[in-house]
Amino acid sequence: MEKEEKLRIFAGVLLIISCFTHIIQIFFVGTASHTIIAVMFGIAYGIIGIMLIHFKDNRKITLLSAVLPLIGGILGVFRYTVLLQNLFSVFHVIIDIIVVPICFYLYFKMKEND
Description:
Layout: H1 3-24, H2 26-29, H3 33-54, H4 59-83, H5 87-113
């Protein structure tokens, strides 16, 4: 298995894990609107995580796998600093910090190989 494939699977698995933790946070921090939005981001993370692993040659999915967590990470920092300080936000931002550069690397590597 080559390096890019391992990175793709790693990023996809992290997104799927993040999906579950985004969803279960509703049971720990309540149902405020910002939590519901975070849950929706989590569902999207799960979908793109599965797609990232399954559709290996799709640049659009790879780019989406970088951009959506980038936006989510920014919102997560805002949520943590302004709205609600909880460990879920910290965990999710850490995952975003790992996933975003991996997926941008994979995207530009794919673009370079075309």
